[in-house]
Amino acid sequence: MSQTLKKFAVLSISLLASAALAQTKQVMGVSIPSADHGWTGGVVYWANETKKELEKMYPNLTVIVKTAKDANEQANQIQDMYTVNKINALVILPQESAPLTRPVANLKDKGVFTVVVDRALTDPKAQDAYVAGDNPGLGRVSGEYVGKTLGGKGNVVVLRGIATVIDNQRVDAFDKVMKEKYPGIKILDRQYANWNRDDGFKVMQDYLTRFPKIDAVWAQDDDIAVGVLKAIEQAGRKDIKFVLGGAGMKEMIKKVQDGDPLITADVTYPPNMIRDAMLLTAKSRMTKTAMPKTTIIPSVLVTKDNAAKFYFPKSPF
Amino acid sequence: MTESRAEIPARSTRPPLLSRLGSLGPLLGLLALMIVATALNSDFLTVSNLSNVLTRASFIGIIAVGATFVIISGGIDLSVGSMAALIAGSMILIMNALGGDGGGGGVIAIGMLCALAIGAGAGLLHGTFIARGRIEPFIVTLGTLGIYRAVLTYLSEGGSISLNNTLSDAYSPVYYGKLLGVPIPIVVFAVVALLGGLILNRTRYGRYVQAIGSNEQVARYAAVDVNRVKVITYMIQGICVALATLLYVPRLGSASPSTGILWELEAIAAVIIGGTALKGGSGRIWGTVVGAMLLLSIENVLNLTSIISVYLNAAVQGVVIIVVAFLQRGKRS
C-alpha cells in the first residue's frame, strides 16, 4: 500500500468514526446500591468518578448514576431511567439477584444494552454482558497465602461474612485449598462476623477466650479485620502471626505498605469494578464493538511490593 | 384501660409465691444459661470472658436503661441505633477538626460534651414532636431512624469515619482502661443503672412516668404535666445513647454506616425480657440490666461452642428470648 493510500485510509476511517460518534448520542444509566457500608461506599465513589471521566472522553455520552436502597427501589429506578432519561445502555449492580432479573430482562427486550455487575441475575439471558469480582478466587488466593505463610501447619480461625452465596463461595474455595494443599493446617472454627467491625471484634474476643493458640486469622474482609485487630490488641496475645482481610480497604492497604507486623497482606475485591464495567460498556457502545460476554476481575494478592498500586487515598473505602 | 384498672388491686395485695417466682424469670433464665454455658465450655466462667461479655452488654444495657423509661411511659424509640451511629460519627469529626494531628484531653472532653448535647438534643426533638406535635412515637422515631443513618452515611460518604491516631490512643483507655480492676464500661453501666433505678423508683418524676404509661388521661386529671414528663423521658433516652457512644467510640475509633444496626431491637428486647410491659405502666431497671446480660451471653455462648450450625445462631437466640418471656408470664394473670 502506498503512503498516500494509507493516509487516505486512515483519514477516511477516522472521519467515518467521528461521523458515527456524532450521530450516536448515547445515554448510559448506572444503577447501584446506595452507600450502606464501606464497600458500596467505594462503588458509589468510583461510579461518580468514572461518570466524569467518561463524559470527558466521549462528548456524546451522558451518564446517569442513581443509587437505590433496596431491590424494589432499584426496579422502579431503572424503569424511570428508560422512560424518562431514554437510556440506551444500563450498567447495574443489583441489590438482589432474583427480584431484578425480570426488570432487567424487560429493558433488554426493549433494546437497552444491559451490563450486570458483581451479583449475577438468576437468568443470564437477561443481560448482554456480565462483569464481576472473583469470589472463589478471593477464597483461593487467601487460602494459598495462609497456607504458604504458615509453612503448611498451624491453627487458623475463620470469620465469615453474612450468610450468602458470595460468602459460601469464598469460604468453600478457601477450605478446598486447605484440604488439598495444606492438610497440616487446622481450621479451629468459622463463625459469622457479618462484614462488620463490631461483630469482628466480638467473635474474635470469643475465639481468643476459646483457643489458647491461634497462628493466623482469615477475616475475609477488611471491615471485620479492623475489629479483629482491636480484640487481639486488647487481649495482648502474641501467638497470632498475621491477620488476612480482603477487599482492599485503603487503611489496610496502607498498613501493608507500611509493614504492619500483623497485616502482612490483603486480597483485593475492588469496588472499582464498577469503573471497569462502565468503561467497557461505554467503549462498546461508542465504537460499536462487541463487549466480552463475561469479564472476571481477578482477586490479587497485595503485598508490600505492590501495595502502592492499590492505594487510593481519595476513595472513602 | 379496664386492664390497667384491674391491675391496681392486684398489685396492692401480696402476690402469690408462683408469680413472685415469675418476676425472677430473667434472673432464672440467666442462671440457667450460665450453667449450660459452663457445661459446654469451662472457659465461660473465666474472669476475662465474663468481663468481655459484661463490657459488651454495657452498650446495649445503657441504651436499654433509657429505653426502660420510654417504654414505661408508653412510648418507644426506634432510632437509638442510628442515633448512636450519628453521634459517634459527629463526635469523631468534631474531635478530628479540633485536634488536627495532635490533641489530647481537652479535645476529647469537648467531643464528649458535644456527643451528650447531640443526644439530649435528639431526645428533645423526639419528645417535642411526640408530646406537643401529637405524632405517634413509633412514627417520629421511625422517621429519625432513617434520617440519622442517612446523615451519617452522607458524612462518611458510605465509608468510615476514623479518629486520628493520636486522639485514638489518648481516648482508648475509656474503653480499655480499668477502675479498681473493673473495666470502665462496666463501671459506667452500673452507675447508669443505679441512677436509673433511683430516678424511676424514688423520685416524683419516676412516679409520673409510670402514671402516664399506666393511664395518660388519669395522669392529666391528676395535674401531671404530661408533655414535660414525656419530653424529659426522650431526653433521658438520648443522653443514655450518647453515654453508650462515649464508650463505643474508643473501642474501634471509628463509625461507619453499619454502626449500631439493630441496636434498637436489642435494647427493646433487653427491656421486655427484663419484665417491663411493652404497653407501658410498669417496669424495672434491674430486669433490663439482666435482660441485656442475657442477650449478650447467648451470643457469647454460641461463639464459644460449635455444636450448633452457625446458620441456626439467630434461632437459638430467638428460642431463649421466648423461653425467658414464658418464665415470667405469671405477672399478667
Automatic annotation (TrEMBL), chain A:
Q: Where in the cell is it found?
A: Cell envelope
Renumbered to this chain, the signal peptide range is 1-22
Does the record bear Plastid in its keywords? no
The protein's matches in InterPro entries, at most eight in alphabetical order, are given as: Peripla_BP_I, SBP_2_dom
Keywords, A to Z, come to: Signal
- Ranges where the Periplasmic binding protein domain occurs: 29-262
Indicate where this protein is primarily found: other
One Gene Ontology cellular component annotation? cell envelope
Pfam name, any one? Peripla_BP_4
Select a single GO molecular function from the record's annotations and give it.
Answer: carbohydrate binding
Determine if Signal is one of this entry's keywords: yes
**Family, per the entry?**
Belongs to the bacterial solute-binding protein 2 family.
Protein name listed in UniProt: Ribose transport system substrate-binding protein
> What is the organism of origin for this protein?
Deinococcus humi
Q: Which taxonomic lineage does the organism of this UniProt entry have?
A: Bacteria, Thermotogati, Deinococcota, Deinococci, Deinococcales
From TrEMBL, chain B:
A Gene Ontology molecular function term for this protein is: transmembrane transporter activity
A family per Pfam = BPD_transp_2
Residues folding into a coiled coil are: none
On whether Transmembrane helix is a keyword of this UniProt record, the answer is yes
Compartments annotated for it: namely: Cell membrane
What Gene Ontology terms describe where this protein resides (cellular component)? plasma membrane
Could you confirm whether the keyword Transmembrane appears in this record?
yes
Key words of the record? Cell membrane, Membrane, Transmembrane, Transmembrane helix
Q: Which stretches are transmembrane?
A: 21-41, 53-72, 79-98, 104-125, 137-155, 175-200, 231-249, 308-327
Topology relative to the membrane? Multi-pass membrane protein
Q: Which domain of life is it from?
A: Bacteria
Name of this chain's protein: Ribose transport system permease protein
